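Notes from hallway chat w/ T.B., transcribed later so I don't forget. T.B. wanted the structure written out for a chain they're using in a teaching module, and asked if we could keep both sequence and structure tokens in one place. Agreed to drop them here.
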Amino acid sequence: MTAGEPTWTRTRWLRVIALLFAGQLFLTWVLAERAVHPVRETKPLAPVALLTLPSANLAVHEHPSVAGATLFALVDPRGFSGQAWLRTPPRDTPLTEWKEPDFYLAANPDRLGLPFQRFHQTNAPQLTSAATVPAFERTPIRATRVPPPTQSSFAVAGDLAARKLLTQLTIPLWPLAGTLRETHVNLAVDASGDVFSAVVEQSSGDAAADKQALDFCRQFRFAPSPTRAPASPIGADLTWGRVIFRWRTTATSITNSPPP
């Protein structure tokens, strides 16, 4: 290179390279083969039928042309397996109630009554002579006349029986032609010995007799409780019990009322 020749700059070299590259791209585009896309034919739409009846849907479902190609290969009620063994009707096996015929043993006349004869031989009664039986001693029976009760009675039961009854009462006969049951009166007595409560628990069947029993119970006076405090209020330290009245009745009318 001489000093008088002009030098190529970097910009000039880049322009030459870019021009050559563009020429190659143009030749490639001109000489390239272009694929021809075929025109796609449009098929007419198939008719659509709407089936509303269940029987029509079942007929289309079971039609051979509608069924899939795997009916002979896979288990399906509509294919070969369905006709062969899936729809086999169950076998009806009737059950017969077998009964053994009656079998009777032959009767042996020689053995009839043999168990009873053996029992009679081993359990024979002992015969006793009348002469060996001792004479029967006669014991005289004495009848004593028991006088009828002249008055009714009462009894104290329960925890209240431990308390001494200070009131002396005589329960007279009750004027009635029939009989009366016992009258049970629940009684509550305080520490001082006074009756705090009296309630009929069992009736005798006569309201008047039950009322008379309550009146008798309200008149009772018991001994003070040994554990009573000096200043115990009324109704403190109650003792519960039951007074049982046993009525004796008489058909004679009593004009005078029983004494208190």
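Follow-up for T.B.: The helical segments are 10-31, 54-61, 80-86, 114-122, 207-218. Might be a good example for the class.
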